[in-house]
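ARCHIVE CARD
CATEGORY: sequence design from structure
SOURCE FIELD: tokenized fold
FIELD CONTENT:
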């Protein structure tokens, strides 16, 4: 099992810890576009594009989500989103989780608290619903 798979398994959301996030994109012209919805439900992560994003024919699909008409489904958080998860071993991350009473944080918690922005894709924001 690779390092990424071990990391993802260690942070797997608790059963019943369902969540929904909206991914938005702010292009250079500043007009915010809803890209898609990321959900965790019944043990699976799903990602689906919005019609709003699909109708912008000048926008490319996200890396790892090439088919804009497909609903992607996985037991493990998709790499595009997992890069937003900081290591829980960092002292500043542990302090923030303790402040929010999330000492046993999973990937859903980490996305809610820290996942809004990622250095690897600064024009995209992940907003908890």
């Amino acid at each position: 099992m690779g390092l990424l798979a071990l990391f993802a398994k260690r942070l797997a959301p608790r059963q019943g810890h369902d969540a929904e996030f909206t991914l938005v994109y702010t292009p250079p012209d500043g007009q915010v576009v809803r890209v898609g919805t990321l959900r965790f439900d019944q043990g699976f992560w799903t990602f689906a594009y919005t019609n709003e994003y699909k109708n912008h024919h000048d926008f490319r699909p996200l890396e790892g989500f090439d088919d804009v008409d497909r609903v992607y489904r996985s037991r493990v958080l998709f790499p595009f989103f997992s890069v937003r998860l900081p290591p829980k071993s960092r002292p500043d991350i542990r302090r923030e989780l303790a402040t929010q009473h999330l000492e046993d944080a999973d990937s859903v918690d980490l996305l809610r608290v820290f996942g809004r922005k990622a250095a690897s894709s600064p024009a995209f924001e992940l907003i908890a619903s």
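CARD ANNOTATION: Strands lie at 19-25, 33-41, 44-49, 72-74, 124-128. Residues 91-99 form the longest helix (9 residues).
SHELF: design records, drawer C
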